[in-house]
Write a structure and sequence with these properties.
Four Helix Bundle (Hemerythrin (Met), subunit A); 2 domains; 3 strands
Amino acid sequence: MSDPDENRRRPLARVIEAQLVDDISAGVLAPGFRLDEASLAKRFGASRTPVREALSRLTAQGILVPAERRGVQIAEYSREQLGQIFEAMHEIEIACARIAAQRLTLLTRMEIETAQAACVEAAEAGDRAAFLRANERFHQTIYRATGNPYVAQLAADFRRRTGPFRAKKFVNKADLVLAAEAHERLMQDIFTRNSDTASDGMTAYMTQSLTKALAAN
């Protein structure tokens, strides 16, 4: 979820962009969902100008695409395209785990643990929406732990693009609990500070996660 304090310091268009990215990444907005400027302007208490700027930026990133008649919608992918995107995402996530294990600090470890605690809390409560957002934060903390903003940005881009598709694999509380347990194993693998262990852990995690996501789509 976007940081409220950070949002207040951002131009309104960036605040809108960040919130939409948050919604898309967490699967709140489904593939093919059409975004209406008037509705968004009302939601954010803004004129259409910052809304239009935010939508333009997301379209340039490939997160949104032109709608059939007018406006924009959440990008949709064929099963083949989604498989190719997941394949690339799989490799990037493994690299992130490997680098994070090598560069782990006390601060980044605490950030990962805090994010995981939020995932566990949401899973145990059966709160799907809260879990989806906590899940995104968990992975973002691993990206930041690499200490490489370019790698982190690349990984984050794939996560934003695939959010609505990955969200479909979470149907009930049991799915959330299993995902939180998988996070725990992955987290401990990264905490070994052994790059091979972290890579193997992320390989197992992503193989299972993306296989389920692909099956759900």
